[in-house]
Amino acid sequence: MLLPTTCNLYLIRHGQTDYNKEQKFQGRGIDAPLNALGEAQARAVAQDFKERGIVLDYMFCSSLKRTMQTAKPLAKLQSLEVQAVRELDEMDFGTLEGTHIKDHLPLLEHLQQQWSSGHLELKVPGGEHPKQVFARANGFIRQTLSTLASNASRDGSQKPLEIAFFIHGRLLRVLLSEWLGLGLANMHRIEHTNGAINHLVTDGHRFEAVECNRTLHLKDS
Question: What is the CATH number of domain 7-218?
């Protein structure tokens, strides 16, 4: 469905937590706060938007603390409320959550091989599979864009909507691989960094990348 107005989407990965630093799985079940570096990354995101003169219309984040905290400096700067929704939560990593990545390398290699071969309904033990994650997040975002764009059109607005979504690493891979035409089987090709910004433009049908994994603002954080 084509939107009555185009939208600039900013998909921002949350700042670093101690789980990221220690290379542990977080997923949906670990609600870790940002550490000091993560807080600095959040401030850097806000400063980057300010310096580039990007004025947002709406801000969304997952229901998890790390995305809320990352969004907070930018929300304060732009005097916007951040809407937290569970549909934007990270992939459920089931029994792996809270454990070190290095302790599961054979399993992770197996999952990656299967997903890359197109077996995208294979779940993480006790968790979700990529198709489930895409369905819930993509469904929410597309419906939200349709509603917001329609409201803007009725109000007579001609300018593109500017919307930020503060989300998670695996979810970024899932969404961007599908939206940019790579397909979920190639989601491993999507780079993501704590505090990085991805800028896309959409008409509701096609998504075009303006900039992916922007990290210039993080050089001093």
Answer: 3.40.50.1240
